[in-house]
Amino acid sequence: MSKLNPSPAVEFYDLVTRTHSEGGDALRSVLGDVDATAGPVLDVGAGTGRTVRIIADALPGARIIATEPDLVMRTVLTHQVAGDDDLRRRVTILPEPAQTMPLPDRLSAVVLFGVIGMLDREERMQLWDRLLPRLAPGAPVAVELLPISKPQQLPPMPYAKERIGDHLYEATLQGEPGDDDLMVLNSTWHITGGPGADRTVHGTSQWHTFGLEDLARETGMVAEQLTMQAGVLRAST
Fold this sequence. Notes:
The chain is of the alpha/beta class. The chain is 27% helix and 31% strand. It folds into 2 domains: 9-146 and 210-235, Vaccinia Virus protein VP39 (Rossmann fold, 3-Layer(aba) Sandwich), CATH 3.40.50.150; 154-208, N-terminal domain of TfIIb (Single Sheet), CATH 2.20.25.110. The protein has 7 helices and 11 strands. A 7-stranded mixed β-sheet has the order 3-2-1-4-5-11-10, with helices on both faces. Strands 6-7-8-9 form a 4-stranded antiparallel β-sheet, covered by helices on one side. The two termini are 30 Å apart. It holds the Pfam family Methyltransf_25. It comes from Phytoactinopolyspora halotolerans. This is Class I SAM-dependent methyltransferase. Keywords: Methyltransferase, Transferase.
């Protein structure tokens, strides 16, 4: 799912990923056949480190390049990596966005979870031009998309529900069409239970809508849908 804007709802990012965990299972299945000796795994928009840990667990010994331009999430990512001796040896953190991140000559896999919809078609084409020549033979590109391929009105729906200590965190998400292929996503978080006053926090993000088959046409790769939101692109044989 799309990452929320840095403020003020970024504090709840990990609560969303906990609720929508099926993408993590899909990513593990994609990584199962990766030859990590062919090059590092690139995690674009690594957020607070959820996908970094999945990659590290699925591919022991693999080198990982984790890019995250948002300072708040990158701070949490750095904390997660620095506190784990194994990750400290294997994970390199970059602050650049997808459009300008430096890339190695070879990649054994690419993970684009919660980020590809932040790029318009021109930006995606520029990204593919940089990524595709660097993919090792058989290297997969794992992607996570909104489960809608064009802008539409989305009524409020439950988004996340988690309890931390005495506080209950509940969120709803609604969407409306923006310009061109954009969806505007609005989340509302209610934090209730003592101690302290109840809180309501609103977050807004934008997401370019398209489907996995659109990415297959852009890249010339073969697409496989794994869940409602997760899929994989592989070079055609």
